Amino acid sequence: MLQNKGGIFLVSGKHRKTYARISKKAIRHNLQNEQARIGDECKLFAVVKADGYGHGAVEIAKIARDSGVSGFCVALLDEALELRKAGITEPILILGIVDVEFVPIIAAEDLSVTVSSLEWLKEAEQRLVQQTKALRIHLALDTGMGRIGFRTVSELTEAENYVTNSELIEFEGIFTHFATADEADETQFNRQLKQFNKLISCLSNKPQFVHAANSATALWHQQIPTNLIRYGIAMYGLNPSGTTLKAPISLEPAMELISELVHVKEIQPGDTVSYGATYEASDCEWVGTIPIGYADGWRRSLQGQTVLVDGQRCEIIGRVCMDQCMIRLPKEYPVGTTVVLVGKSGNDQVTMEELAEYLGTINYEIICGIALRVPRIYV
């Protein structure tokens, strides 16, 4: 529960004022914008794997459900079961390969699962004999991602024939995943699209769902044959292409990362800060300590990155510790002053893309890396 006391947000039941603030409005905005763009003929599934990309899977799923999505995608069986336990009754597609021994659980919980081999299907059918529900499957096609899926017409034809003749397995969907949908060069994308169309054309009967669109594909490649969109990173308000391609619709980042000053001091010329004494003051400087570190996902290599205090950029000085880091302040600030690590303060803003570029990675890794010990507050 979030409480506002004199402008300071407190988390009820928590004892640390470092938290990730998640905007429900932003999630709704991003989903409704995309649904309006694709129309009612295409189903929108919210991807909430990896604990909702670090935003909290159950809470995000409830917001997405209330926003009108048709279903959900996860990566693991346990992620799907977490949603079912929380009362999410909508369709859930597990995108990863699940050990065939858990087929009875998948069927009993009314889940859909990804399949990429005939051998898996044959063993699954043997484990379904005592089940009252059919197993819903989506056949994965490897058209160039090189991860999972059927690769040839002969493999796919065998799999389709097998599920068509089975009374225990329902052929609900077929899909692929593009490796370069977020890049300006469309050579590899078009190569995969050609292979996808080739494989799809060999089917005797297409299943209910034929899908190939993640966030990037949905944003920049609307010409592909798909009637289901797996909407992931864009739902959270982040551009899947980082800064390479401009998003065709408005995306509102849902997560802010907030902390506060817990200690403020003045250091003298020659004084050092943090492990390894890698920072040495050249003058009298005000230094603030923030209760967040690499155990929270605030990476050690963020030394030199800036955060916002009172709308001003403040550099992280010295090495980021496990639970704390230090910043150089422009003047003395009182303990308890808000520090914005990601988000807006005054006329400035620190974005996930900025952190990703500083670290030489992608925004996905930043948000997924925020540790569970950082509370998520939904506003």
From TrEMBL:
Job description of the protein: Catalyzes the interconversion of L-alanine and D-alanine. May also act on other amino acids.
PROSITE patterns: ALANINE_RACEMASE
Swiss-Prot/TrEMBL GO biological process terms: D-alanine biosynthetic process; peptidoglycan biosynthetic process
The organism of origin for this protein: Carnobacterium divergens DSM 20623
Name of the featured protein: Alanine racemase
Gene Ontology MF terms: alanine racemase activity; pyridoxal phosphate binding
Protein family membership: Belongs to the alanine racemase family.
Cofactors named for this entry: pyridoxal 5'-phosphate
Stored SMART domains: Ala_racemase_C
EC number from the UniProt entry: 5.1.1.1
Keywords, in A-Z order: Isomerase, Pyridoxal phosphate
Pfam families, per database record: Ala_racemase_C, Ala_racemase_N
Catalytic residues (positions): 49 (proton acceptor), 275 (proton acceptor)
Modified residues annotated as N6-(pyridoxal phosphate)lysine in this record: 49
Pathway(s) per entry: Amino-acid biosynthesis; D-alanine biosynthesis; D-alanine from L-alanine: step 1/1
Superkingdom of source: Bacteria
Binding site for substrate: 147, 322
Any one cellular-component term (Gene Ontology): cytosol
Residue span, Alanine racemase C-terminal domain: 254-379
